[in-house]
Write a structure and sequence with these properties.
The protein is an alpha/beta fold and about 450 residues long. It folds into two domains: about 55-290, Aminopeptidase, CATH 3.40.630; about 300-400, RNA polymerase II/Efflux pump adaptor protein, barrel-sandwich hybrid domain (OB fold (Dihydrolipoamide Acetyltransferase, E2P)). The protein has ten helices and 20 strands. Strands 3, 4, 5, 6, 7, 8, 9, 10, 11, 12, 14, 17, 19 and 20 form a 14-stranded mixed sheet that branches. The N and C termini lie far apart (about 75 Å).
Length: about 450
């Protein structure tokens, strides 16, 4: 390649990687977080020998693995809902990484992935996670919301969302008390947390990471996870992610698949991402894999139905669609022969689509990241059906340096300040509104 060609190539590459469309204050925070996150917390380069790891009045010896029953409630009567926490305590110094599944009881990708991670394929002597060679400590909780999991419900028995009660209160309602124990005993002692979720009932997510990229530790592990889509957002109020970030704990939420459903691809991506993070933190040996490009999204748009009836999605989550493209049709059995089309307002990548066929006018049916820059880069990652297959679904991608990963900024705002703010909650049971007087009487 000639010198002029090299300069031209470098110029084209930098135009993809560098974006000044972000608000200046936000861009500075993200850039500062990148600089601050270069040196991971709990670096294994420390010369201090690891000590016995203490968790819930139990002790885990160096270089061993132990499963501990942790009660979600402190009670002498009734069910304390004991969850199983597996602690893998390495023989070398390093960070504490906590892995959570089923914070929402009907989201099964976490329990599936974390149970696989604890199997002999990944854990044990001469396996990727070998306590004798591990630097740091891993705490794995496949099912956090045990009563919700047993009921196949997103919520706790009192109808509340565990991930909206953090940091909780030991004197509060049932869910708040559990949130307080989970946050104090499991999350607060961590350096980093990966919380595995799916979309709520009635929709499905393309595998994606959600993190506050202005938080250095979260920025570090969000990129280290190794997949293409990262949504930059504050955690919702009352979420474990938001509370953890306020304590300078690196926390990312993985979203993939849908509720009460199995998804082999989404599970595979979780396993791939967790190992990537551990390699990036030097907890285990090996080099982390990286995607060809990342979409760093700071906002999105919604595709809504203008008619009510039965929805037939034509474009799945992960599809790149054009502005004006038909993404779904709606029919009404009471009006045979009548068909309404749902059109994408912009070109971009669908990161979530509806699976519930019942829709009303105004209901969201798709969540899309508008792609205005870096279209050619995105298209190079699509399959023949113009669908993005996330890294880790079909094994590790080819080795590449971090500087070789294109980063495409997706600008905008989150609806009502939340990534999922545009989804309606018609399928979700109402959260009971209980006054303080009623609680005192109950």
């Amino acid at each position: 390649m000639s010198d002029s060609s090299k300069r031209k190539s470098a110029k084209n590459k930098s135009s993809t990687k560098v974006s000044n469309q972000l608000p200046r204050s936000r861009r500075k925070k993200v850039e500062q977080a990148l600089e601050d996150g270069v040196n991971p917390k709990g670096s294994p380069r420390s010369k201090k020998k690891p000590k016995i790891h203490r968790f819930a009045r139990s002790r885990v010896k160096v270089g061993t693995m132990r499963t501990i029953r942790f009660p979600l409630l402190e009670t002498e009567m009734g069910d304390p809902w004991p969850v199983r926490v597996t602690v893998i305590h390495g023989s070398k110094p390093g960070p504490v990484l906590t892995l959570l599944g089923a914070v929402h009881g009907d989201e099964l990708i976490g329990p599936m992935a974390l149970t696989h991670l604890l199997g002999t394929q990944f854990c044990g002597s001469d396996r990727p996670i070998d306590p004798e060679n591990l630097a740091g400590t891993i705490r794995i909780v496949p099912v956090v919301n045990l009563p919700g999991y047993r009921m196949r419900s997103r919520y706790f028995p009192d109808g509340r969302d565990l991930n909206r009660e953090s940091p909780g209160s030991s004197k509060g309602n049932t869910t708040s008390r559990v949130a307080q124990r989970v946050f104090k005993n499991i999350i607060a002692g961590s350096d980093y947390v990966i919380d595995v979720h799916t979309a709520a009932r009635g929709r499905t997510n393309l595998p994606q990471i959600r993190a506050d990229l202005a938080d250095p530790a979260s920025n570090l592990i969000a990129r280290a996870f190794g997949i293409e889509v990262i949504l930059d957002s504050l955690g919702p109020r009352g979420s474990f992610r938001r509370s953890a970030n306020e304590m300078d704990i690196g926390y990312v939420t993985y979203e993939g698949g849908g509720a009460n459903a199995s998804d082999a691809g989404a599970v595979q991506v979780v396993l791939y991402g967790i190992l990537n993070v551990m390699r990036s933190l030097s907890m285990i040996s090996g080099n982390p894999s990286r995607p060809q490009a990342r979409l760093l999204a700071h906002g999105s748009q919604w595709i809504r139905a203008d008619e009510g009836g039965l929805l037939d999605m034509r474009a799945p989550a992960g599809r790149f669609v054009e502005a004006g493209e038909i993404v779904a049709t709606i029919t009404d059995p009471e009006r045979p022969g009548a068909i309404a089309t749902v059109i994408s307002p912009v070109q971009g990548l669908l990161i979530c689509t509806a699976t519930n066929p019942y829709v009303n006018s105004g209901a969201p049916v798709g969540h899309i990241l508008p792609i205005h820059r870096g279209r050619k880069t995105v298209e190079s990652m699509l399959n023949d059906d113009r669908i993005l297959i996330p890294s880790g679904t079909d094994g590790d991608p080819p080795w590449r340096e971090e500087t070789e990963v294109d980063e495409i900024q997706v600008e905008g705002e989150w609806f009502e300040g939340s990534v999922d703010g545009g989804w309606h909650s018609e399928l979700d049971p109402p959260i009971p509104q209980v006054s303080a007087e009623e609680e005192a009487e109950s």
